[in-house]
Design brief:
Blueprint lengths: L4 H17 L2 E6 L5 H13 L3 E4 L2 H8 L15 E6 L2 H14 L4 E7 L2 E3 L1 H8 L4 H40 L1
Antiparallel strand pairs: 1-3, 1-4, 2-3, 4-5
Helix pairs in contact: 1-3, 4-5
Length: about 170
């Protein structure tokens, strides 16, 4: 069943809205992938907040026109699935992990704000720590000097009490 003009326009607008909020777009070839595995991938992407959909390439080309992702239009050939996410590392991790375990799912390219990424660059992006992990590392780094200062201040009365206890034991 073919779509009428209004339905096509709605799809392009929906994809355009997702791209406007996106930090990364990753495209992959899915030929030969079993439906059950594809369903598992859809569930993982939904949990991670990734817009994941098989869309006609011409619709996506229209949606990325005049955006920082317009350079990706050259890679949009063949049956592709699009992963569009606000967190580039999370998007890359979910799709890269799935591609490692499934030969039929091949990441073709990606894009981040005007830069087209190759398959290897997407894999490198997936190896970075997640945003939450980076924030926790930053908090630990910021908290370390304060914790050390508090321990140092606490050591003065503790050593005084130990000295008094030693004198008491000696008498």
């Amino acid at each position: 069943m073919s779509l009428n003009f209004e339905q096509k326009k709605a799809i392009v607008e929906e994809v355009g809205a997702q791209i406007a909020d996106a930090q990364a777009i990753i495209i992959a070839d899915y030929r030969g992938l079993e439906v059950s595995k594809f369903t598992q991938l859809r569930a993982k992407t939904r949990e991670s907040g990734i817009y994941f959909r098989v869309i006609k390439n011409s619709f996506v080309r229209r949606a990325v026109r005049n955006t920082p992702y317009s350079n990706l239009a050259d890679q949009m050939v063949g049956p592709l699935v699009y992963g569009i996410g606000r967190d580039p590392v999370a998007t890359a991790k979910v799709l890269h992990e799935f591609a490692k375990n499934n030969d039929k799912f091949v990441i073709k390219a990606g894009a981040m704000a005007g830069t087209v990424l190759s398959n290897k660059e997407v894999a490198a992006l997936a190896s970075l720590p997640s945003r939450d992990e980076l924030l926790s590392r930053l908090m630990g780094t910021l908290q370390a000097p304060i914790a050390k200062f508090v321990r140092t201040l606490n050591e003065v009365p503790t050593s005084f009490v130990r000295g008094l206890a030693a004198i008491r034991d000696q008498k």
